[in-house]
Amino acid sequence: MSNTTRDSIGSSFLGSSFGQKVAGSIVDKSGTKSCCPSLTLKQRIIGFGVCTGLVSGNIARFAIPYTFGTLLSLAGSFFLSGPLNQLKKMFLRKRIIVTLVFIASIIMTLVSAIAIKKPILVIVFVILQYGSYFWYSLSYIPYGREIFCKCFKRRSGGSA
């Protein structure tokens, strides 16, 4: 494949900010050089897949460290109020549902990766894990959930 063809494919796949050659390296719109200018689009995609563990065929290599990181993040919040107090707060009425979804998504991420070995299920449960942990974390910020919801709420009135 010629450099021109590869550059046009990279430009259309990665957006217009990539694919512009300046003095032998790829430069984005801000004028900064790419970290890996000599990599082809195929090599970049392979690198992405390997780093996320999805290409290696062993989805557990991705799911286990990701889940461990989520649990480590949760354990970090124990320093703020203490482990027992944190556990009590996790099961308060306003957090019980999101806590159960969070725990279930952690368990199902591991089950999907280790026992079922279905990458798409792992991705679904990782997204659910991330979302539930985010929503759980917002519950500790005064009016955090309400402010977040207001950011995405459509305004009534105005022109339609």
TrEMBL record:
GO annotation, cellular component aspect: cytoplasm; endomembrane system; membrane
Transmembrane segments: 63-84, 96-116, 122-143
Pfam families attached to this UniProt entry: Got1
Keyword Hydrolase in annotation: no
InterPro entries for the chain: Vesicle_transpt_Got1/SFT2, Vesicle_transpt_SFT2
Subcellular location: Membrane
One record GO biological process: vesicle-mediated transport
Main localization, broad class: membrane
Sorted UniProt keywords: Membrane, Protein transport, Transmembrane, Transmembrane helix, Transport
Membrane topology: Multi-pass membrane protein
Family in the record: Belongs to the SFT2 family.
Function: May be involved in fusion of retrograde transport vesicles derived from an endocytic compartment with the Golgi complex.
Protein name (record): Vesicle transport protein
Organism: Stylonychia lemnae (Ciliate)
Gene behind the chain: Contig8089.g406
